[in-house]
Specification:
This protein has helices spanning 44-51, 79-85, 97-100, 107-118, 123-136, 142-147, 155-166, 185-202, 213-219, 237-242, 247-254, 269-280, and strands at 2-13, 16-28, 33-37, 60-69, 72-73, 90-93, 173-177, 205-210, 222-227, 230-236. The chain has 12 helices and 10 strands. The two termini are 32 Å apart. α4 packs across α5, α5 packs across α7 and α7 (155-166) runs parallel beside α8. It binds adenosine-5'-triphosphate and magnesium ion.
Length: 281
C-alpha cells in the first residue's frame, strides 16, 4: 500500500546541509503494523512527515526517491492534492497530542469540525458521530468529554481524542509518531492496545514510529531500524527480535527490560507469541 523507495531528505541550514534521511526504503502492506525504530535524531519523524508533505519548512528538500501510495507518487502531488490524502487515506497521530488540539475550543467543537470536513452531516448528526468515535477509542463518558477543553483531560484521554480524530474518515493507514512517549507505562500500554484493536477491527495499517523495541515486541508485524538517517536493518518483528543482525539493533533490543510487558498483552494472541519469544531471547 505504501512504498517508500530511496528517499533522501536534506535540510539547508545556515550551518550547512543536514542529511536527515539517506536513501531510505520502507514498505507498509495492507493491514500491516510496521515499527520504525531508532535513537533520537535518526530521521524517523522526518521520514514520516515527508509522507504527508508536512516537513513545514522551505529549508527541507527531498533530494531523491519516491513515496507511492497505492501506486501514486505523493512527492509529485500539490499541497492541495495532499490535503485530500491527509485524514482521508492516511491518518496522523503526532508525537505531541497537546499540539494537535486547540486549547481555546472544546473537544466537541474540534471533533465536530473534523467530522463535517469529511462527511456531509448536520451538527447534531456530527455530534452523535463524535460520541460514537470516542466510544470506539474507549473514552469514558464521551458527552462530558466533548464539553471539556483539552486541559481538563488526562494525557491518555487526550491521546484517545487525537486517535479518534485521526480515524474519522477511516483511513487505510495510520502514521503514529511516538504516540505514547509522553504517557506513563500503564496508560502507554492502554493506548498501544487500542491501536492493536483498531488494526484488528478496522484493518488499519500502522506505521509506528518509536525508539522502543518493547513497543515493537508488543505490537508490530515488521520493523525497520534507522540510525543517523539510514536504514540499518529491516525484517519481520520476530526475525529482528530473535536474531538481530546489526550491532546497533542488538544494543537497542538489549536496553529493553525483558519482563516489562505485563499480562494484559496476552489478550492479543499475536502479541503473546512475540512476548514469549522475546522473553526467551
Ligand atoms: N527543521 C529542521 N531543520 C534542520 N534540521 C532538522 C529539522 N528537522 C529535523 N532536522 C534534523 O533531522 C534529523 C532527523 O530528525 P528527526 O526529527 O527525524 O529525528 P527522530 O528520529 O524523529 O528523533 P526523535 O526520536 O528525537 O523524535 C536530526 O538530525 C534533526 O536535527
Ligand atoms: Mg521524532
Amino acid at each position: 500500500m505504501l512504498e517508500i523507495s530511496n528517499l533522501s531528505v536534506d535540510f539547508h541550514t545556515d550551518g550547512g546541509v543536514v542529511h536527515a534521511v539517506k536513501d531510505v526504503s520502507i514498505t507498509v502492506g495492507e493491514g500491516e503494523i510496521r515499527g520504525l525504530v531508532g535513537e533520537s535524531g535518526s530521521g524517523k519523524s522526518v521520514t514520516s512527515m515527508t509522507i504527508l508533505g508536512l516537513l513545514g519548512t522551505r529549508r527541507a528538500r527531498v533530494s531523491s526517491g519516491e513515496i507511492l501510495l497505492n501506486g501514486t507518487n505523493l512527492l509529485e502531488m500539490s499541497q492541495k492534492e495532499l490535503g485530500r490524502i491527509r485524514g482521508r487515506q492516511i491518518g496522523l497521530v503526532s508525537q505531541n497530542a497537546l499540539s494537535a488540539l486547540d486549547p481555546s475550543f472544546t473537544i466537541g467543537s474540534q471533533m465536530i469540525e473534523v467530522i463535517r470536513l469529511h462527511q456531509k452531516l448536520s451538527r447534531a448528526a456530527a455530534y452523535e458521530e463524535a460520541v460514537r468515535s470516542l466510544e470506539r477509542v474507549g473514552m469514558p463518558d464521551p458527552p462530558q468529554k466533548l464539553r471539556a477543553y483539552q486541559h481538563q483531560l488526562s494525557g491518555g484521554q487526550r491521546q484517545r481524542v487525537v486517535i479518534a480524530m485521526a480515524l474519522v474518515a477511516r483511513p487505510a493507514l495510520l502514521l503514529a509518531d511516538e504516540p505514547t512517549t509522553a504517557l506513563d507505562a500503564t496508560v502507554q500500554k492502554q493506548i498501544l492496545d487500542l491501536l492493536l484493536e483498531i488494526n484488528r477491527d478496522l484493518g488499519t495499517a500502522i506505521l509506528m514510529v518509536t525508539h522502543d523495541f518493547g513497543v515493537v515486541s508488543h505490537m508490530c508485524d515488521s520493523v525497520t531500524v534507522m540510525r543517523k538517517g539510514s536504514v540499518v536493518e529491516q525484517g519481520s518483528a520476530d526475525q529482528v527480535l530473535t536474531a538481530p543482525e546489526h550491532p546497533y539493533t542488538r544494543s537497542l533490543i538489549s536496553s529493553v527490560p525483558k519482563l516489562r510487558l505485563d499480562d494484559t498483552a496476552r489478550a492479543v494472541p499475536r502479541a503473546e507469541r512475540r512476548l514469549h519469544v522475546f522473553q526467551e531471547a
